[in-house]
Write a structure and sequence with these properties.
The complex is a heterodimer of chains A (241) and B (537). Chain A has 241 residues and is of the alpha/beta class. In chain A, 38% of the residues lie in helices and 20% in strands. In chain A, the strands form 2 sheets. In chain A, strands 3-2-1-4-5-6 form a 6-stranded parallel sheet, with helices on both faces. A 4-stranded antiparallel sheet of chain A has the order 7-10-8-9, with helices on one face. In chain A, helix 4 packs parallel to helix 5 and helix 6 packs across helix 7. The radius of gyration of chain A is 21 Å and the shape is globular. Chain B is an alpha/beta fold. Helices cover 60% and strands 11% of the residues of chain B. A 6-stranded parallel sheet of chain B has the order 3-2-1-4-5-6, with helices on both faces. A 5-stranded antiparallel sheet of chain B has the order 7-11-8-10-9. The longest helix of chain B is centred in the middle third of the chain and has 47 residues. The chains are: A alpha/beta (241), B alpha/beta (537). Chains A and B meet through helix 1, strand 5, helix 6, helix 7 and strand 7 of A and helix 13, strand 5, helix 18, helix 19 and strand 7 of B.
Chain lengths: 241, 537
């Protein structure tokens, strides 16, 4: 998996949880906080942590923002701090991915306006989850044990790269040649807009470079599919199922 | 068999008789049980009856009474007398007293004597009759003796009976009883002040010609009217000394009145809150499948909104009054209180009408405590708890929670995944939450339905705009040719099965699709045989 260089701002309990997840996924990241004590806690857990003032643009640049850093997590204690950080980060680097959490529902729109790519509301999500556990426990259980769990069933996105044989080819044709056991959830087709179009709509997309396929499957199958897509040559057509 | 033994035998028989218990239970529910619906109806009926009979009394002052009015009066009398006797019967269980006496005698080794036992029963009934409410009831029945004309006044006692039926009135009565210490102190003080000032004014005024105070009664009347700041002005002092007393009395009066008001207001406020809580409890009792939401913080609010949207019954409990107020303003049932108290959980009918409880407070310690209390209370309820620290999760599960929600973990997962695969994460999130109209829905294969025995290849999912995520099979015996699967607790999940996968009854199809497509497919399942074949082609 590609190793992003990520910056996690905040060394509070939530940030530590995020850090554990990132470590589990083999991401390369550094944690930042203004408070020495929290930085120490993060280091004790084994994460790389630095004491930095997030209002100091120069320090941020030195850290790698605008350069190597490709993703920023705004997980500071106050919504106002996260907004400030998001604006700063976006100003320094227009391309970096910014994920922020909001503690009040009103801050969500402010964070998006400040430049965040995704705003996660922990309470809304937890509430939704608690509700789902009551209303649809079977679905929650299913997802927990398969896609979200430790088992080998994952969701993945594949951007069609340069030189792929898929460029200019219809989706139906790709399906015909497909041998891997994966489920195609949807396609982001640049010709039809930026949002994901679910495959249940049965649109036979004309795939181009830069389009994104979202699939679900076991890791091996996903990798095999990814390799197939990346290939320059069309795969030898096996007997159609 | 001597009479004592006969009586005891009868007492035991009554005790064991289910019919008697049911009978008594019915009347108890009707007359006494504060939360029963039947009682609410009975109370309303009685209020109307009393008001009607009092209205007749008023009417009678200037008009002649018709025969129907007389009959109505007799009817009311019969009801009131019946009620009085019923209440006396319900007041204490005399059979219990007799049995207790008998068993006590047996234990100690003395001979059981009937007379003291009967006397104990009689004492119980007399105690009932001595209660103020019972005296009022009795006085309310008396007046119908025609000869005793002035006894008509006692009909007004019937109005006092209203205190029994209107809960708010009886609340006021209880307030007075609860605050009797303060009110007694107050009365003694007022009494002393009135006594002193009335004697003083009498001494000063009575001899003076043209004074309005002539007798001691006038002086007392004036003192009371003045100290309560009413001041009719019909009796006023003329002499300077009298007026001085008046001025002092007025100031004393203001103090007294405000003191009394504050006591009553405070007590009434507390009583009102209790009444409000009781109302919520009775409301909960009337519903079914209730969810108890402990903690009305952010997460609690989100869950409450969802439950309200889905039309599910729920009640909110929070220690913080402001939070409860917020919930009430949104129209939710809410009580202030501590969810870790068993009494509160009992009032909220956990284990009976309430089958689910969510512990969503900020404090992990509290959540564990509530979970433990709830699980001890009832083995079957669904308990979902919130864990703020990762270590608490195991403790909650040990304490008896069915599921644990960890807000930070949920966020971390989403955030961490997003940074690598933003499109995929959003897609999955949309499907799981159903926010874009596309849902993940489990659809069971009904036994005897059209899908039993069908191969997946025969069902045109894509033609119906559906995506088959997989099939969950709970059947414990694996069938040949099933293919590989993912184990779930007690079940097997077949991801994206092959075309030759055969469906069996009680399998669950996990489908992804838009609402319309899903409901259409669901309807299709309801059809059988030929109709389905026609629809499929």
């Amino acid at each position: 998996m590609k190793r992003d260089r990520l910056a996690v701002f905040g060394c509070n309990a939530l940030a530590l949880e995020v850090a554990r997840r990132l470590k589990h996924a083999d991401h390369d990241f550094v944690m930042i906080d203004n408070d020495e004590g929290r930085v120490r806690d993060a280091r004790e857990e084994g994460f790389r942590a630095e004491r930095l003032d997030y209002t100091d643009d120069e320090a941020l640049r030195q850290l790698g923002l605008g350069g190597e850093i490709e993703g920023v997590f705004c997980l500071l204690g106050e919504d106002s701090e996260n907004v400030f950080l998001a604006i700063t980060a976006r100003a320094i680097d227009p391309d970096t991915r910014i994920v922020a959490i909001c503690r009040e529902p009103e801050s969500s729109s402010k964070l998006l306006a400040a430049g965040a790519d995704k705003v996660v509301d922990p309470y809304a999500i937890s509430g939704a989850r608690a509700y789902d556990l009551i209303a649809r426990p079977d679905v929650v259980e299913l997802l927990e044990e398969t896609v979200f769990g430790q088992q080998d069933l994952n969701i993945a996105e594949i951007t069609i790269p340069q030189g792929s044989w898929v460029h200019g080819v219809r989706l139906s044709e790709v399906r015909r040649g497909m041998t891997q056991n994966i489920l195609l959830l949807g396609v982001v087709d640049a010709e039809l807009g930026q949002s994901l179009i679910f495959s249940t709509r049965n649109i036979d997309h004309n795939l181009d470079i830069g389009d994104i396929l979202v699939i679900i499957g076991a890791r091996e199958q996903v990798e095999a599919f990814r390799a197939m897509i990346r290939d320059v040559a069309r795969p030898a057509t096996s007997s159609s199922s | 068999m001597n009479p004592a033994e006969q009586v005891i035998r009868f007492a035991y028989w009554l005790d064991g008789s289910a019919v008697y218990a049911r009978f008594k239970g019915f009347f108890y529910d009707l007359l006494i049980e504060p939360r029963s619906r039947r009682r609410a109806w009975f109370d309303t009926g009685m209020i109307l009856l009393i008001l009607a009979s009092v209205f007749l009394l008023i009417y009678r002052v200037h008009h002649e009474m018709s025969r129907y009015a007389e009959m109505f009066e007799t009817f009311v009398l019969a009801i009131l007398a019946g009620e009085y006797l019923l209440r006396m019967w319900l007041h204490c269980a005399c059979r219990r007293i007799l049995i207790e006496h008998y068993e006590h005698a047996e234990l100690v080794g003395m001979r059981f004597r009937l007379t003291p036992a009967l006397w104990a029963v009689a004492k119980g009934k007399l105690a009932y009759m001595a209660r103020p409410m019972s005296i009022i009831d009795l006085l309310a029945i008396l007046p119908s003796y025609r000869p005793l004309g002035f006894m008509r006044l006692f009909l007004l006692f019937r109005l006092l009976k209203l205190f029994r039926y209107a809960r708010s009135l009886s609340a006021f009565g209880k307030v007075v009883v609860e605050k009797r210490f303060e009110l007694t102190t107050l009365s003694i003080f007022v009494g002393a002040v009135v006594l002193i000032s009335s004697i003083a004014v009498y001494l000063f005024e009575a001899g003076v010609p043209g004074a309005s105070v002539v007798t001691l009664l006038d002086a007392v009347y004036w003192a009371v009217i003045t100290v309560t700041t009413v001041g009719y002005g019909d009796v006023t002092p003329l002499t300077i000394e009298g007026r001085v007393v008046a001025m002092i009395l007025v100031f004393a009066g203001i103090g007294v009145v405000s003191f009394a008001t504050s006591i009553v207001v405070m007590a009434f406020h507390e009583k009102m809150r209790e009444l409000h809580d009781n109302r919520v409890f009775s409301e909960v009792e009337r519903l079914s499948g209730v969810t108890i939401v402990c903690g009305f913080g952010r997460i609690g609010q989100v869950v409450a909104e969802r439950l309200a949207d889905a039309g599910d019954a729920f009640v909110v409990i929070d220690k913080d009054e402001a939070a409860v107020e917020r919930a009430r303003r949104r129209g939710f049932l809410a009580v202030p209180g501590d969810a870790s108290e068993s009494a509160m959980l009992g009032n909220l009918r956990l284990g009976k009408q309430a089958t689910r409880i969510l512990c969503l407070t900020h404090d992990d310690v509290k959540n564990v405590y509530i979970t433990l209390t709830a699980r001890q209370f009832s083995r079957d309820v669904l308990i979902i708890s919130r864990a703020n620290k990762p270590e608490t999760m195991r403790k909650l599960l040990l304490a008896g929670a069915n599921h644990v929600v960890r807000p930070y973990e949920v966020v971390a997962r989403m955030a961490a995944e997003f940074i690598g695969q933003p499109v995929a994460v959003d897609a999955l999130h949309d499907v799981v939450t159903g926010s874009k109209g596309i849902h993940l829905e489990p659809m069971p294969v009904l036994p005897g339905g059209s899908l039993v025995g069908a191969s997946l290849g025969d069902i045109d999912f894509s033609g119906r705009n559906l995506l088959l995520f997989g099939v969950i099979r709970s059947n414990p015996e694996p069938v040949a040719g099933e293919g590989e699967h993912y184990p779930m607790s007690g079940k097997r999940f077949f991801f994206n099965p092959r075309a030759d996968f055969k469906l069996r009854a009680h399998d669950v199809l996990v489908l992804i699709g838009y609402d319309v497509s899903l409901s259409h497919f669901r309807k299709l399942q309801g059809m059988k045989g030929a109709a389905v074949a026609r629809a499929r082609s």
